[in-house]
Amino acid sequence: MTRCGVVVLAGRPNVGKSTLLNALVGEHLAIVSPKPQSTRLPVVGLLTSGDAQFIFTDSPGLLEPEYQLHEVMRAAAVRAIDDAEVIAYLHPLAEFPAPPLEQVAKLKRPPRAPVVTVYTKADLAPTSTVLHQPPPSSTVFVSALTGAGLDILLETLRVALPESPFHYNPDELATQPMRFFAAEFVREAAFELLHEELPYSVAVEIDEFREEQSPVYIRAVVYVERASQKGIVIGEGGRTIKALGQAARAKIEALLGGRVFLELHAKVLPKWRRQQSSLKRLGYAR
Ligand SMILES: Nc1nc2c(ncn2[C@@H]2O[C@H](COP(=O)(O)OP(=O)(O)O)[C@@H](O)[C@H]2O)c(=O)[nH]1
Ligand SMILES: [Mg+2]
Questions:
Q1: Do both 34 and 126 map to the same domain?
Q2: Which domain holds residue 130?
């Protein structure tokens, strides 16, 4: 009998959830940034290996909500934990030991699904952090950067998966449409190229996506919250928005495996992070 199920990658912001998803799937699907709270929506990555199919779900970091966007991000993370067959609870090894997941996620009762505690960024932890006694069977140490521990992690998760037929074709890596990834990669470029708090004010909407032509034509709107931010995103003589477009295009082309023409426009959507109607329109809220 095969095994198949949803494995949620959960934990505080910046613990390495998105990086681990990409390392496990072997494809850059989820955006990664040294800045916390870059993931706003769950990203799904598939891995089929032998008799097991893992449906990995990267989730937004479990944080203290400061405004409406944070509240919908937190709700999405808690929902992903509720819906999972297995919970991979990530915490940096350098900050051993991990507080209980119930506390971090503020769950009212212990989660239904089995929890595997995954200590991340093992390459950064001083060797003295390594435990003096063998860890419990549901604890794994990994480094997404070096790949250390990933095989043990997969084996630990595999035995926790329910017996089930595969939900997806074994060749598939993703379940979300290409236009979702296109918008995410523009956001990832914004996290790389824009300074300080500005990336947090950026949202991206795909206006047009013509996949049947070559190069694939994509037109996207880069929303910010204020006119002054729009000026910064465009930059002198359009320099910044051009650089954003180039960086995002390279990421989209890598996933799509073909050429892309990407057109970006900057627009102001006042205080979108604090407005339910804007959050809905941007796909962040239900
Ligand atoms: N050295 C090291 N850095 C890592 C590792 N995993 C993630 N990072 C870095 O930690 C930061 C946050 O990673 P990210 O995956 O975006 O965290 P998330 O917020 O939990 O999704 C990024 O700068 C990553 O490059 C790792 O295994 N080793
Ligand atoms: Mg992330």
A1: yes
A2: 3-160
- Ligand 1 pocket test target in 32, 43, 58, 185 with most atoms within 8 Å of CB: 32
Q: Say yes or no: CB of residue 15 within 6 Å of ligand 1.
A: yes
pLDDT at residue number 89: 97
Angle at which helices 239-256 and 178-193 cross, to 10°: 140
In a domain, 114, yes or no: yes
Nearest protein Cα to ligand 1, atom 26 = 121
Ligand 1 center to 265 CA (angstroms): 30
Ligand 2 center to 133 CA (angstroms): 31
Q: How confident is the model at residue 129 (pLDDT cuts 50, 70, 90)?
A: low
Is residue 94 included in any domain, yes or no? yes
pLDDT in tens, 76-120: 999 999 999 999 999 999 999 999 999 999 988 889 999 999 999
Task: State whether 32 and 152 are in the same domain.
Answer: yes
Task: Say if residue 152 is in the same domain as residue 23.
Answer: yes
| Residue 213 CB partners (closer than 8 Å, separation 6+) | none
Question: Measured from the CA of 12, which atom of ligand 1 is nearest?
Answer: 20
Q: Which strand ranges, in their side-by-side order, compose the sheet holding 43-49?
A: 43-49, 52-58, 3-11, 86-92, 115-120, 139-141
